[in-house]
Amino acid sequence: MTWINCTLPTEFMLVGLSEIPSLQSLLFVMFFSIYIVTLLGNICIIFAYQYSSNLHTPMYFFLANFSFLDICYISTTVPNMLYNFLHGHNAISFYGCVVQLYFLMLLGSTECYILAAMAYDRYNAICRPLRYTIIMNKVACTNYVFGSWVIGIGNSVIHTTLTFTLPFCSSTKINYFFCDIPPLLNLVEADTSINELATFIIGGFVTMGSLLLTIISYSMIISTIVKINSSSGRKKAFSTCVSHFTVVTIFYGSGIFIYLKPKSNYIMDYDRLVAVMYTVIAPLLNPFIYSLRNNDVKVAVRKLVCGGVTAHKY
E strand or H helix at 124, and its extent? Predict the structure, then answer.
């Protein structure tokens, strides 16, 4: 790492979600509850897939992987937040900040392409039903997940390396509740144009590239659905896509708002609220969005809770 006339900081101070001491206990209870519910909800999705043979399809294979990513994603930020709420010392070590940013970039990028794979799966199921089992076979699905992780790793390595070669000389107080690219760039008085350009281009490629694949898939899906003569058939086809489309809207909407804008437009107070949406609220809502509208998942979870399921593997 290159540090010009700088001493390597040992830690960063986080402003957190609130600097009012009396709110720390309330915030701890609220986010601890959200964290536990998120873990339980996503674990139920994973176990329902693992131990319910009727869910051993590509759609639920991707959903189980997405739930695993959500567990990891929320665990990257919330445990440190909870610790800081309890101790009243909003800090994170320098290397802890590096690790946190690396995994945020990795998991976020991977989720983008898992969502794209899920959209492609729905496209094949609705638009190419006769060839669906051939196209979306086990090897293909595994390759899509593996490819998503490879893209995520590459994106994360680039952004983390570029960010932490910057000189953090003037301040180590991050106006955020976790280590992220926009608030870290705000600490640097040196030229950050290369970092901003990399965030816009590479982040745009990862985010907008996967979003474009998702939009193309849904354009083809809608085009096919409107041609279905039966109203019940159209309704059934749409219902299989609504949950995924809702998750896509929440995830991409908040991510694009944070990352695809210039440094001059960073407003940390507003960005913190948006960041809560995609790092905390989205992982909380996702298992409920998928399960509440999906009878197969609800039945599988009910059987799982009652202990009446025989284990099978996809």
Answer: helix 94-127
